[in-house]
Design a protein that fits this description.
The complex is a heterodimer of chains A (904) and B (436). With 904 residues, chain A is an alpha/beta fold. Chain A has 35 helices and 21 strands. The N and C termini of chain A lie far apart (85 Å). Chain B is of the alpha/beta class and 436 residues long. Helix content of chain B is 58%, strand content 8%. Chain B has 22 helices and 7 strands. In chain B, α5 packs across α7 and α17 crosses α21. Classes of the chains: A alpha/beta (904), B alpha/beta (436). At the A-B interface, α19, α22, α29, α31 and α32 of A face α2, α7, α9, α11 and α14 of B. Chain A: This is Origin recognition complex subunit 1. Chain A: Its main location: nucleus.
């Protein structure tokens, strides 16, 4: 079910909000205060303001990119919407080999402040999916159960994880455009954190107005859970007003809010459509001043709250209709739907069930996060957990946590909702407990949304004084505590069942298999010959790759240039087996990775697939996707996801280097696998470098249809078989001063191998065998000297000499006789083929000549079959009995030579 | 008198017991149920293989090797001896994971992968999950092997019996991957292939071949007849730990004299000429052994002769002895047709004509058979596979006109006629005559 929803596409509409201020006269770009996003056909509006943490559409539906919004700007025509962001990385975006640097297991909701320069800070504002919450870096991670929030503790500068400098975060927020703190006057900015304690204040702002709620729910917020928090605040806000005002008023307020470009929150609260604009501005200015006056903390608090509120703005139907499809985005419904599902039981038929999900005491979080940009938001966590299908346990926990979102009181059903709300709040707070110091008064710091609070919050808008809110909060807390306890009992039952349904669609996470480890450690090589043997094993990785310098350089330059430019390309590498193709590429990648560690080139990702290591060419998609994103999906789906990934622009994308080994096995009748592999690099946003390896030089011409060969391009390289000098050098460099071989012996091996195949593997194997022979020939293992010519000769004989002649010599007399009969019959017929019957007649005569008792036909057949099993003879199927045809698998000369009596 | 009888009875009872024990011991030997103490005639191969596997087990060095030898040459026996010896080493005992695969059982890579996973006990890692697709399975196993490294993971010995059959799997995926692991710094493995095909390397795809270390251990017995005889003696002799020394001495002495008997030497010589492998020898000895009883507590030369006759019997000639006169006549007619047309195929009508000619001209004893009866006899011959239809599409041609070939040699026919009980002389003469 979940999966199903992911694929739904939603069109999003983006609209600037706030008064444009001129940002750069030369470039004629305008800065904007916020951005309203809405989903077509839905009424809710999400507002994004600089300073907020946002989710940006990436190549992965499940894990969008995270960034902090610094600035919004556009050109005169308002057609282009741009945004300046500070990136954050998820662990999955950190290169695989660097993950270990973290030194601990990452929290699933953890993100990292990105210090690298490889990514473009400027993004298309229309790729923003929603906002997300954050928790300061000094808070411990919550229980695994908490979701929905992201946590920043460390920064990542492409080389190492560092402790995040709080100043960094402050700086980025300071650089936000002039009016970042606009929404100071959020109605519900109640959460009070005294600057001193700085501890997270937990705050629930539940204010559900049924209608609003419903809408919000239907909005099916984008990345859902992340934005949920915001939404909830928004709703809370609307509820506040609702509590005071009539339903109609609310509606109109909403409409106005959504329609106007002014910050929706404030407008709604005030409910005076006409004045909103001005008011807002005034407020903003006020805020600015205040900020400067060192009340930073409080300001931020409030501002963040307001963001979240704005976020939730619901779209009035009117608006959605008239809005032009500016920024249409698809967007996955999955999350929302999930959360809705989950919540619906708790809502118990109340119409405002959707609201439950959205209502959260976000403001406290938002406030926290604004203080320290590094805090992850819980909502996100939950969202992630939901998505992570395999983690059934997590999901369950999630479900329990989900109620933490405070439910707002609907006018109609105050009691139920109130209970729910309190319950949720309590949960939320419990979470916070784990991580943070609680409110100074030692209370549970449970905030139950009550009418009082609502009122207070609405009051706040006007008063804008921290102290007041503080006090109010506290009172609220005390009042509500009692209730929470009762309600808590209810929730657990409901949640698990929902979880189950969410978990099922997921593919089970595969256990990581491994070969059991040995009880006794492997023995290290004891003497020189053993040492040499270990070094000569093909599996040992040499320090350098001699004799492939030119090829190395070419590939290196190719890949490096592509990585530097952020473009893509294909390369085809051919060569007979054992000429170091794969090894060279691995070496190139090692060097490049080193370079990127040294910051000389941008980071990139290396993925390797092997045509021989998959059961079917289409598995290539699955393997690529799995290595890119750790997802496990079917081939078709993987192809679709990869297609999307490589064709859609994604701002933070790093170059992917894909090595396709044994390319010829990816051949299919339609060649679509190869086509795709070579087509992706040509896409503008793909940033994909494909290196392909196969054995034959003319593979593109031989097996590829034109459109595939054309995409592969002409960047080709051929690895020649090693010459004897190169082979010698390879062995010498591998041995690396271990003196185990005579010089002549080495030369003999390398000349012999070079003459036959130029396969380095063969060469190494022969050398290894020679050391064994040397060791055995010595009377005592330790007394074995250097490997001499004779040993090498013996090894060569073993490996290269054909065993046919020995086999014939060792065959029994009748078998030898039969072979002779075969040749005699061939000579008689003048053909290279005879039936068994004919040969058998010859066999009889021959055995009479030899003075042997002629054998019976059955026995003759048995002899023939034995020779056939060894493949000295090639036989037809044995059901033909006497009529089966017989051919020699060895040349007649060899047979005659082998049959010549050797005794004398 | 009673006493004597009782004594005699006790003696026979004891003898029964000993004979029974002898048969137990020797049968175990001949049926390959117990590994010999030491493989005979393959000392260097044994040393090579043992050394190789020991290095894998102790040093974690990956290796690949092929044991090549004709059927019955002792490949599996050698390997099992080596494994037994290897597992006796203390260090190695708990450190290796042998995986036995057989090309005749694991007929494709999918089954082979499942079997490997099962034998490596990796399935418990997978949990209750039903085994996934082939692709998942492969990825799973490769990941498992990749996770290991030379020094820390247990070496895995992959023993591939009938190695050549694995080379016929699609893309040789399994072989490629196993050999690739053996050539890369992953979990240490030893890939041991057993095959009787000398050209097995030519079956490997070039990439697979390059990854194979090209070590081949050939088991080609260069046993001389003297050694062969020695071997027969030692195979028939009782082990030293036989409970009754008197019987032990008696038996071994009788075996010694047996092996010096000229008749026995001749029989063994002809056997040796035909095949040197021990499996056929064991078959022969087994037949001889089965004639030993309490009343005849030793193998006699005639037993061996009889056994060899059973072993070497011509099965088709035996069938001929059981044919009816009519069928035999048809066979003779076919022989004549073969002579006339130089081995070209014939059909029923031709045979029937030939037969009728014989009846008209030469026969005195055989009456005329109706055609349906002759057809019936002809079909019976076909069922016995003494004649074989040459047409691939038999359906369309009438039975009488289907082309056939005789699957008998002239010598077989003549021999059968000689031995045929009460064969009419005119039939015999007809068979001897040159043309019809």
């Amino acid at each position: 079910m979940v999966r199903y929803f992911t694929r739904l596409r939603v069109r999003r509409i983006y609209k600037w909000g706030g008064r444009p201020y001129i940002f750069d006269r030369k470039l004629k770009s305008y800065g904007f205060e916020y951005l309203n996003m809405s989903v077509e056909g839905q009424e809710a509006v999400t507002t994004v303001t600089p300073g907020q943490y946002i989710l940006i559409e990436g190549n992965d539906d499940e894990y969008p990119f995270v960034a902090k919004l610094l600035k919004l700007f556009g050109d005169e025509s308002h057609k282009q919407k741009k945004a300046l962001v500070q990136w954050f990385l998820r662990l999955s975006e950190v290169p695989q080999n660097k993950k270990l640097l973290l030194g601990r297991s990452p929290h699933p909701q953890e993100i990292f402040y990105y210090l690298g320069r490889a990514c473009d800070d400027e993004i298309n504002a229309e790729s923003i999916l929603g906002t997300v919450q954050h928790v300061p870096e000094d808070t411990p991670f919550p229980e695994p159960g908490t979701k929905d929030t992201l946590y920043v503790k460390l920064s990542w500068d492409t080389k190492a994880f560092n402790v995040l400098d709080p100043v960094l975060m402050q700086d980025t927020s300071a650089s936000t455009p002039p009016k970042p703190a606009l929404p100071l006057f959020t109605p519900c900015a109640s959460p009070t954190a005294t600057p001193v304690s700085r501890g997270p204040v937990h705050h629930a702002l539940p204010t559900p107005d049924p209608t609003v709620m419903r809408r919000a729910g239907s909005v099916s917020d984008t990345r859902a859970t992340m934005s949920a928090g915001k939404r909830s605040t928004l709703e809370a806000e609307s509820i506040h007003s609702a509590s005071k005002l009539s339903a109609s008023k609310i509606l109109s307020a909403k409409r106005r809010g959504s329609a106007a470009d002014t910050p929706g929150v404030r407008k709604k609260l005030q409910l005076s459509p006409g004045k909103k604009m001005t008011r807002a501005d005034v407020l903003c200015e006020l805020l600015d001043e205040e900020m400067e006056s060192e009340k930073v903390v409080s300001l931020k608090l409030s501002s963040s709250v307001s963001h979240s509120l704005q976020h939730g703005c619901s779209l009035s139907p009117m608006r959605s209709g008239c809005k032009t499809p500016n920024g249409q985005r698809r967007f996955p419904w999955k999350l929302t739907s999930i959360s809705l599902d989950r919540l619906s039981p708790t809502a118990l038929g109340e119409q405002d069930f959707s609201s439950t999900l959205q209502i959260e005491c976000l403001d406290s979080y938002a406030f926290l996060s604004s203080q320290r940009p590094t805090t992850p938001s819980r909502r996100k966590e939950s969202a992630m957990a939901i998505r992570e299908p395999a983690l059934g346990v997590l999901a369950e926990e999630d479900s329990e946590d989900s109620p933490m979102q405070p439910i707002a009181l609907t006018p109609r059903s105050k009691r139920k909702s109130a209970q729910l709300v309190s319950l949720r709040i309590r949960k939320q707070l419990n979470l916070l407990d784990n991580t943070q110091e609680l409110i100074s008064d030692g209370d549970d710091d449970c905030f139950v949304p009550s009418k009082k609070e609502l009122q207070s919050s609405s009051n706040e808008e006007k008063t804008d004084s921290e102290e007041e809110t503080d006090s109010e909060e506290e009172t609220v807390v005390k009042k509500t505590r009692g209730r929470n306890c009762k309600t808590s009992v209810r929730t657990p039952h409901k949640t698990p069942s929902k979880k189950v349904c969410m978990v099922t669609p997921s593919t089970p996470r595969c256990a990581t298999p491994c070969i059991p480890s040995r009880t006794v450690p492997a023995r290290q090589p004891g003497n020189i010959l053993e040492e040499a043997r270990a070094r000569l094993h093909v599996s040992s990785v040499p320090e350098s790759l001699p004799c492939r310098e030119q090829e190395f350089q070419d590939i290196y330059n190719f890949v490096e240039s592509k990585v530097m430019d952020g473009t893509g390309g294909c390369m085809y590498i051919s060569g007979v087996p054992g000429t170091g193709k794969t090894a060279t590429i691995h070496e190139v990648i090692r060097c490049l990775q080193h370079a990127s560690d040294m910051d000389e080139i941008p980071t990139f990702r290396f993925i390797e697939i092997n045509g021989m290591k998959m059961t079917d060419p289409h598995q290539a998609y699955v393997q690529i996707l799995q290595k890119l994103t750790d997802q496990k999906v079917t081939a078709d789906h993987a192809a679709a996801l990869l297609e999307k990934r490589f064709s859609n622009p994604a701002p933070k994308k790093e170059t992917t280097v894909l090595l396709v080994d044994e390319l010829d096995l990816l051949w299919t009748r339609k060649q679509n696998v190869m086509y795709n592999l070579f087509d992706w690099p040509t896409r503008r946003h793909a940033r994909l470098v494909v290196l392909t390896i196969a054995n034959t030089m003319d593979l593109p011409e031989r097996i590829m249809i034109n459109r595939v060969a054309s995409r592969l391009g002409l960047t080709r390289m051929s690895f020649q078989p090693y010459s004897f000098k190169q082979l010698q050098q390879i062995i010498t460099s591998r041995l690396n001063k271990v003196k185990a071989f005579e010089e002549d012996a080495l030369q003999l091996v390398s000349r012999k191998v070079a003459a036959l195949s130029g396969d380095a593997r063969r060469c190494l194997d022969i050398c290894r065998r020679a050391t064994e022979i040397c060791e055995h020939s010595a009377s005592h293992p330790s007394s074995a000297g250097l490997v001499k010519m004779s040993h090498v000769m013996e090894a060569l004989d073993e490996m290269f000499s054909s065993s046919y002649i020995t086999a014939i010599r060792c065959a029994s007399l009748q078998e030898q006789l039969f072979l002779r009969a075969v040749i005699a019959e061939f000579r008689r017929l003048g053909l290279e083929e005879a039936t068994f019957q004919q040969v058998f007649v010859q066999h009889r005569t021959l055995s009479r000549v030899e003075g042997l008792q002629p054998i019976s036909l059955s026995e003759g057949l048995a002899v023939c079959q034995r020779l056939g099993a060894c493949r000295l003879l090639l036989l037809e199927a044995s059901r033909l009995d006497m009529l089966q045809r017989v051919r020699l698998n060895v040349s007649q000369d060899d047979v005659l030579y082998a049959l010549k009596p050797v005794r004398d | 008198m009673d006493n004597i009888i009782r004594k005699y009875l006790i003696m026979t009872l004891f003898k029964y017991g000993y004979i029974f024990q002898v048969q137990m011991i020797l049968r175990e030997r001949f049926c390959h149920q117990r590994l010999p103490e030491k493989p005979v005639g393959m000392e260097s191969q044994h040393k090579h293989l043992l050394e190789l596997l020991r290095r894998t087990a102790v040093h974690g060095e990956s290796n690949s090797v092929l044991i090549v030898g004709p059927r019955g040459s002792g490949k599996t026996m050698l390997l099992n001896c080596v494994l037994r010896e290897l597992l006796e080493v203390k260090d190695v005992n708990k450190n290796v994971l042998p995986v036995h695969l057989n090309g005749l059982l694991q007929t494709d890579d999918r089954i082979a992968l499942k079997e490997i996973t099962r034998q490596l006990n990796l399935e418990n890692v997978v949990g209750d999950k039903v085994f996934g697709s082939f692709a998942e399975n492969l990825a799973f196993l490769l990941e498992a092997l990749k996770k290991g490294d030379r020094s820390s993971s247990r070496p895995v010995l992959f023993i591939l019996d009938e190695f050549d059959l694995f080379a016929h799997h699609k893309n040789q995926t399994l072989l490629y991957n196993l050999l690739d692991v053996s050539q890369s710094a992953q979990a240490p493995v030893a890939v041991i292939g057993l095959t009787c095909r000398l050209d097995v390397l030519e079956l490997l795809e070039k990439r697979v071949k390059s990854r194979f270390s090209h070590r081949q251990i050939h088991l080609l017995s260069s046993l001389s007849f003297i050694q062969y005889l020695d071997n027969v003696r030692s195979q028939l002799s009782l082990p030293q730990d036989f409970p009754d020394t008197k019987f032990y001495d008696e038996w071994n002495d009788s075996i010694k004299t047996l092996c010096e008997d000229q008749l026995v030497v001749d029989v063994l010589q002809s056997h040796y000429n035909s095949s040197k492998d021990f499996r056929s020898l064991h078959l022969l000895l087994m037949l001889a052994l089965s004639r030993v009883s309490a009343s005849k507590p030793a193998i006699k030369p005639t037993d061996l002769l009889e056994a060899s006759r059973v072993c070497m019997v011509d099965s088709k000639a035996n069938i001929l002895h059981g044919l009816s006169i009519l069928e035999l006549c048809l066979i003779i007619a076919m022989k004549h047709l073969n002579d006339i047309y130089e081995g070209e195929p014939f059909n029923f009508q031709m045979v029937h004509n030939e037969f009728k000619k014989f009846l008209q001209r030469k026969s005195h004893s055989i009456h005329n058979f109706d055609k349906p009866v002759v057809i019936k006899a002809f079909e019976h011959l076909q069922q016995l596979e003494l004649i074989k239809s040459m047409d691939s599409s038999t359906a369309k041609i009438q039975k009488e006109y289907q082309l056939m070939k005789l699957l008998l040699d002239h010598s077989q026919i003549m021999e059968a006629l000689q031995k045929y009980p009460q064969c009419p002389t005119d039939v015999k003469q007809w068979a001897m005559s040159a043309f019809g």
